[in-house]
Amino acid sequence: MSQSLAYKHFQRALAQWPKDILRPQVSFQKSMQQRIDRHFSPSDHRLNGKEIKNDALTTVPSALKVDETAELEQANVLYSFLENRYTKKYPLSDHIMKPKSNPTYYENLIKELEEAPTRSWFARQINAWKGSLRLK
Question: What is the pLDDT of residue 31?
Fold first, then answer.
């Protein structure tokens, strides 16, 4: 495996990435790790669209050059999400976070998202039942 600087930064960023408690079966870290391993692996494992004739490869793929600068920029994007740079740079006002039509909407949403992973099967069924009935 390649030990380039960009590869090391990707590894570090993915190690710090938070786990998704709502969807533990879906892993951003795993999918990114597969992408990084494929991208930084030696090119002899990739066919790159080469033809196979008589069970033999007609041409041997040449070594693939990795654009280190572009990869470092992409790793920097991961770091920017980890550090919440955009939330700090562009803070949301109360006008957006508390709309006049439903001022507690986002607070209730966050509360619901925090409670959802720990809810029992029975509680989930009760909530689904409550959601299907709209009493006025």
Answer: 92
pLDDT digits (tens, 9 = 90+) for 118-132: 889 998 888 888 878
Q: What's the whole-model pTM score?
A: 0.65
d(CA 113, CA 95): 22
Q: Which of 99, 101, 81, 98 is nearest to 89 (CA)?
A: 81
Tokens of 55: 């069970």
Alpha helix ranges (H) inside 17-100:
28-40, 68-82, 85-89, 94-97
Q: What angle do CA 36, 78, 82 make, to 5 degrees?
A: 135
